[in-house]
Amino acid sequence: MWETISKDQILRDIVTSVAIVIVSFLVAKIVGVLISAFRGKIIQRAPIELGNRMLELLARFGRRLIVIIGLYLAVHQLSRILSPGIFRVVDGALYIAVVFIIVLFIIDLTNTLMRWYSQRLEEKNQVFVSREFLPLFDKIVKIALIFIAAIFILKHFNQDVGSLIVSLGVGSLAIALAAQSTLANMIAGFTILIDRPFRVGDRIMLASGEIGDVYEIGMRSTKVLTFDNTLIIVPNAEIVKEKVTNLSYPDPKIRVVVEVGVAYGSDVELVKKLLQEAAQSHPKVLDDPPPAAYLINFGDSSLDFRLICRIANFMEQWRVAEELRVKINEVFAKNNIEIPFPQRVVHMAKTE
What we know:
Blueprint: H1 2-7, H2 9-37, H3 39-43, H4 48-77, H5 84-123, H6 127-156, H7 162-178, H8 180-195, E1 203-205, E2 211-217, E3 221-226, E4 231-235, H9 236-239, E5 245-246, E6 254-262, H10 268-280, E7 292-298, E8 303-311, H11 317-334
Antiparallel strand pairs: 1-2, 1-5, 2-3, 3-4, 6-8, 7-8
Helix pairs in contact: 2-4, 4-5, 5-6, 10-11
């Protein structure tokens, strides 16, 4: 039998092709078994959920790719038997199948990594990244992979791809010029993502003086929620060039300042003591650093004092300041400390 096969080239090619197909199926099966056998060791080096997904992808696409490559080699082994037309059709179909499987594997691998990374970002309260930038990155990767796959397939069929690349380059340049402001805002959004000058929930002060909490950071703009419950929408390209003061980062502690004027003739040390005691009695005021009161100015109608203390959460700054003013008004009334009205002393000159 072996001697017959050796003499008959056609029969030898057929047997070799069948053997290649059988071996490819066996190798695909062995690869699946090996991946299952080493599954525990691989997962120990990566997060369990991510490891499971990666292994499933590797096993599924690995088996398919091995089988398709085996069929591709088997068809090439039969190139002397098949007619040129049939060989080109089958060869082209298998080549497209190989490219298609590789592209699908890379896309699924990218999706798996991005889903895992998106979950990590949401656990860190970085929802805007997972909702805005990751889907955009996913689309860019898919378009790029499809474009590369199309180039490989066209080159395999001896098609000129140079003119296609030039046309796409010119089209991309035209789109970039037309959407220049949008692209600038998107690039600025990526800059905010990388540099992280502020995060969602941070209290910031814009260069124009408005103060508010960062409500959302999108691809095109950043939204700031003011104390009037209105949104200030600032393009990302502008906010990255402006001076932005972050009032809540890196430490959410913030200073509370209360200024008050008392009548001339009041006991300065007593006033300072009452101000400090009012702050120390408030449950939200921190002991470190301790509250301090200062005489800051000799006003037209009053001695002006400033009380300075710190609280743990910037969100409570205004409420604590208001409660301190109420408390100061009470202790001043109990200790006969007068908060004067604006007044003027007028001297009348007698004329003869």
